[in-house]
Amino acid sequence: MAEGAKIRNFLNQWTAYAPIVAVVALILTWGRDLPSALVVIVAGLLCIAVLAAVHHAEVVAHKVGEPFGSLVLAVAVTIIEVALIVTLMISGGTKTQSLARDTVFAAVMITCNGLLGLSLLVGAMRRRVAVFNSEGTGGAFATVTMIATLSLVLPSFTTSRSGPEFSPAQLGFAAVASLGLYLLFVTVQTRRHRDYFLPITTSGKVIDTEEHLDPPSTRAAMISLGLLLVALIGVVGLAKGVSPAIEAAVDGAGLPHAVVGVVIAMLVLAPETIAAVRAAARDRIQTSLNLALGSAMASIGLTIPAIAIAMIWLPGPLLLGLGGTQMVLLLLTVVVGTLTVVPGRANVLQGGVHLALLGVFLFLAASP
Question: How far apart are CA 297 and CA 312, in angstroms?
Fold first, then answer.
């Protein structure tokens, strides 16, 4: 009886209805040209669906524990990203040939500088110093660096094609290598060295379970998993509906088309950002860094293979290679990130430096 009461109370929350409302709105607006007022409403429903997705992902994460919980949200966000990129590339023509590169690079910069910097800043401001496991975080950052260089830097230097793109064989190799490295990291994170990715409090205590909060029942977790999937469908579909308005706004403002990729990345990473800040505020910096670096890794390690498969039927080339300015920003992120991760402790300065790097990236994306 108590279990049934809990389920009914759970279903009475707004987070239970928001995903369903988002999907209904998606059905009603799919394939239609939306007027400005309706675009605003759809955007509002999109934000609510994102918040609901965060809630349900956290419920599932609490049930399965760390670091599995971080993987749930990272993979969910990547599904959104891949769906948006492929959908826009199908309907966008030549303007979207570099959309995958722009979105993935933006995701790496936002996660490795924005999420990481904000998490460190919040944690350090509340407790003077943010403490995390350098072994797990260092391994994650090294993997992100490897697959980012393989997928985004090397295409600018290969000679099989004239532009910053891989040949089909090179793209296939990069996709398999990226996916393989991601799966290897997941194995290390969840099985062989799970303790490297467990939260550590400022006092040095390792937290294997969430304190003072009972985990949800299996039934409640399964309901949240189902609602999470529904919310993701709503987010992807509604984002596709408002994307023409975003592209029109970008073109109308005279901004580079790469800004569209930045907007997509910021949109799909909103759940990660909220979850990471919440974890940092609870002195769970390791959880925040798991989310940040896990999202960066999934964004490349899963998106590039998915796009490579989609290129079988998508027309036109796939431009993956970064330009000179973007390479400098990626290199600076790698150097600063390494210096941040190695000590296993950070203060507000490190958080501020990473956020400044994000600011530079956003400014140069709008004004190259």
Answer: 24
3-state secondary structure 129-159: CEECCHHHHHHHHHHHHHHHHHHHHHHHCCC
Contact between 152 and 101 under an 8 Å Cβ cutoff? The reply is: yes
pTM to 2 decimals? 0.81
- What domain range is 138 assigned to? 2-366
Tokens of 220: 């409640």
How far is residue 268's CA from residue 263's CA, in Å, rounded to a whole number?
9
Q: What is the pLDDT of residues 258-308, one digit of tens each?
A: 888 888 788 777 777 888 888 888 888 888 888 888 888 888 888 888 888
| AA identity, residue 81 | E
DSSP, residue by residue, 295-323: HHHHHHHTHHHHHHHHTTTS-S-------
Q: For position 199, which CATH number holds?
A: 1.20.1420.30
**pLDDT (tens digit, 9 = 90+) per residue, 110-161?**
999 999 999 999 988 877 888 888 888 899 999 999 999 999 999 999 888 8
Number of domains in the chain: 1
Q: Among all chains, which residue has been given the structure tokens 């964004």?
A: 299
CA distance 181 to 147: 8
- Measured over the CA atoms of residue 361, residue 189, residue 300 and residue 237, the dihedral's sign is negative
